[in-house]
């Protein structure tokens, strides 16, 4: 295994949600009611999950986002600080925090509805946000906050030599101006299909394929394929976020190592229920790699 040489500074700009998770043997079809087997409230949100994953996987992370002034806010903030993610740029706005209604079936597959709440209020970046982005090695974003804010952050990152990783999820149309400022795109196979040729100008594209692992293509035509370790799947929620955060933390070691590190982290995240609660530590990822 490659030795860790340094700690990349990573600014994660994105969402933070309280996940309301119902487990059931089978997800209902439209119009149907099914009985559940359990319920949990777990801090989540693609931004927060990726921030925690990047920090636990070896990065030094600052989170840029917003919670509301409701009962969920303190626990959402604590989920970040418990994992030593910097929250100086986490703002509190009037109204509800983001929430996600999640149904997980017996096979560990999920369906998710996100109601943005405070995340939708991330319409502007403060001077302090911009300074964090400019000083970071990596800016990591998703699409659960307003697209214009992500575009402004990527523009500022590019102007200041900060590498931009974009996980364009939930998938939507991304303007060419934003793609032009993205160095690394991380997408699942469905997103890759939907985005198609939009991904062509991006220098580095990583496609996750669930249990089939991940593939990488570089601008110079370099291709890599990384199988996924075999694990007992309990819940896939947050596995993609864990992969993406760990990839950001390992990116400075090159795509091959980053794919190995992230693939192991993502697989481990499927072995426990919940998003932030299933994200492995650096030690757990290392141990899984050495026992492989
Ligand atoms: O990617 C999983 C996440 O998507 C959940 O934690 C949920 O909050 C939604 O943002």
UniProtKB/TrEMBL annotation:
<keyword id="KW-0630">Potassium</keyword>
<keyword id="KW-0119">Carbohydrate metabolism</keyword>
<keyword id="KW-0963">Cytoplasm</keyword>
<feature type="binding site">
    <location>
        <begin position="45"/>
        <end position="49"/>
    </location>
    <ligand>
        <name>substrate</name>
    </ligand>
</feature>
<dbReference type="InterPro" id="IPR002139">
    <property type="entry name" value="Ribo/fructo_kinase"/>
</dbReference>
<comment type="similarity">
    <text>Belongs to the carbohydrate kinase pfkB family.</text>
</comment>
<feature type="binding site">
    <location>
        <begin position="208"/>
        <end position="213"/>
    </location>
    <ligand>
        <name>ATP</name>
    </ligand>
</feature>
<feature type="binding site">
    <location>
        <begin position="17"/>
        <end position="19"/>
    </location>
    <ligand>
        <name>substrate</name>
    </ligand>
</feature>
<feature type="binding site">
    <location>
        <position position="235"/>
    </location>
    <ligand>
        <name>K(+)</name>
    </ligand>
</feature>
<feature type="binding site">
    <location>
        <position position="241"/>
    </location>
    <ligand>
        <name>substrate</name>
    </ligand>
</feature>
<comment type="similarity">
    <text>Belongs to the carbohydrate kinase PfkB family. Ribokinase subfamily.</text>
</comment>
<dbReference type="Pfam" id="PF00294">
    <property type="entry name" value="PfkB"/>
</dbReference>
<comment type="function">
    <text>Catalyzes the phosphorylation of ribose at O-5 in a reaction requiring ATP and magnesium. The resulting D-ribose-5-phosphate can then be used either for sythesis of nucleotides, histidine, and tryptophan, or as a component of the pentose phosphate pathway.</text>
</comment>
<dbReference type="GO" id="GO:0005829">
    <property type="term" value="C:cytosol"/>
</dbReference>
<dbReference type="InterPro" id="IPR029056">
    <property type="entry name" value="Ribokinase-like"/>
</dbReference>
<feature type="binding site">
    <location>
        <position position="278"/>
    </location>
    <ligand>
        <name>K(+)</name>
    </ligand>
</feature>
<feature type="active site" description="Proton acceptor">
    <location>
        <position position="241"/>
    </location>
</feature>
<feature type="binding site">
    <location>
        <position position="144"/>
    </location>
    <ligand>
        <name>substrate</name>
    </ligand>
</feature>
<dbReference type="GO" id="GO:0046872">
    <property type="term" value="F:metal ion binding"/>
</dbReference>
<feature type="domain" description="Carbohydrate kinase PfkB">
    <location>
        <begin position="9"/>
        <end position="281"/>
    </location>
</feature>
<keyword id="KW-0067">ATP-binding</keyword>
<feature type="binding site">
    <location>
        <position position="274"/>
    </location>
    <ligand>
        <name>K(+)</name>
    </ligand>
</feature>
<feature type="binding site">
    <location>
        <begin position="240"/>
        <end position="241"/>
    </location>
    <ligand>
        <name>ATP</name>
    </ligand>
</feature>
<dbReference type="InterPro" id="IPR002173">
    <property type="entry name" value="Carboh/pur_kinase_PfkB_CS"/>
</dbReference>
<dbReference type="InterPro" id="IPR011877">
    <property type="entry name" value="Ribokinase"/>
</dbReference>
<protein>
    <recommendedName>
        <fullName>Ribokinase</fullName>
        <ecNumber>2.7.1.15</ecNumber>
    </recommendedName>
</protein>
<dbReference type="InterPro" id="IPR011611">
    <property type="entry name" value="PfkB_dom"/>
</dbReference>
<feature type="binding site">
    <location>
        <position position="237"/>
    </location>
    <ligand>
        <name>K(+)</name>
    </ligand>
</feature>
<keyword id="KW-0479">Metal-binding</keyword>
<dbReference type="GO" id="GO:0004747">
    <property type="term" value="F:ribokinase activity"/>
</dbReference>
<keyword id="KW-0547">Nucleotide-binding</keyword>
<feature type="binding site">
    <location>
        <position position="269"/>
    </location>
    <ligand>
        <name>K(+)</name>
    </ligand>
</feature>
<dbReference type="GO" id="GO:0019303">
    <property type="term" value="P:D-ribose catabolic process"/>
</dbReference>
<keyword id="KW-0460">Magnesium</keyword>
<dbReference type="GO" id="GO:0005524">
    <property type="term" value="F:ATP binding"/>
</dbReference>
<keyword id="KW-0808">Transferase</keyword>
<feature type="binding site">
    <location>
        <position position="188"/>
    </location>
    <ligand>
        <name>ATP</name>
    </ligand>
</feature>
<comment type="pathway">
    <text>Carbohydrate metabolism; D-ribose degradation; D-ribose 5-phosphate from beta-D-ribopyranose: step 2/2.</text>
</comment>
<feature type="binding site">
    <location>
        <position position="272"/>
    </location>
    <ligand>
        <name>K(+)</name>
    </ligand>
</feature>
<keyword id="KW-0418">Kinase</keyword>
<comment type="subunit">
    <text>Homodimer.</text>
</comment>
């Amino acid at each position: 295994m490659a030795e860790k040489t340094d700690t990349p500074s990573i600014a994660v700009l994105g969402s933070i949600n309280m996940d309301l998770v119902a487990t059931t043997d089978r997800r209902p079809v439209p119009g149907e009611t099914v009985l559940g087997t359990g319920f949990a409230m777990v801090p989540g949100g693609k931004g927060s999950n990726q921030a925690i994953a990047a920090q636990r996987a070896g990065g030094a992370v600052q989170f840029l986002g917003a919670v509301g002034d409701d009962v969920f806010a303190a626990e959402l903030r604590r989920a970040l600080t418990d994992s030593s993610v910097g929250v100086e740029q986490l703002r509190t706005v009037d109204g509800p925090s983001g929430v996600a209604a999640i149904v997980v079936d017996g096979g560990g597959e999920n369906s998710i509805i996100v109601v943005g709440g405070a995340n939708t209020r991330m319409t502007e970046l403060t001077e302090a946000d911009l300074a964090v982005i400019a000083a970071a090695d990596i800016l990591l974003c998703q699409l659960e906050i307003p697209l214009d804010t992500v575009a402004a952050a990527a523009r500022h990152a590019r102007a200041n030599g900060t590498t931009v990783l974009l996980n364009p999820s939930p998938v939507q149309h991304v303007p060419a101006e934003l793609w032009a400022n993205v160095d690394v795109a991380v997408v699942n196979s469905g997103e890759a299909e939907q985005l198609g040729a939009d991904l062509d100008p991006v220098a580095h594209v990583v496609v996750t394929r669930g249990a089939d692992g991940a593939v990488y293509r570089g601008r110079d035509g370099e291709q890599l394929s990384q199988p996924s370790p075999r694990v007992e799947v309990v819940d896939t929620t947050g596995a993609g976020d864990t992969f993406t955060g760990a990839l950001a933390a390992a990116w400075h070691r090159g795509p091959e190592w980053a794919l190995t590190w992230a693939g192991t982290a993502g697989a481990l995240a499927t072995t426990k229920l919940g998003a932030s609660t299933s994200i492995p530590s650096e030690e757990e990822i290392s141990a899984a790699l050495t026992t492989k």
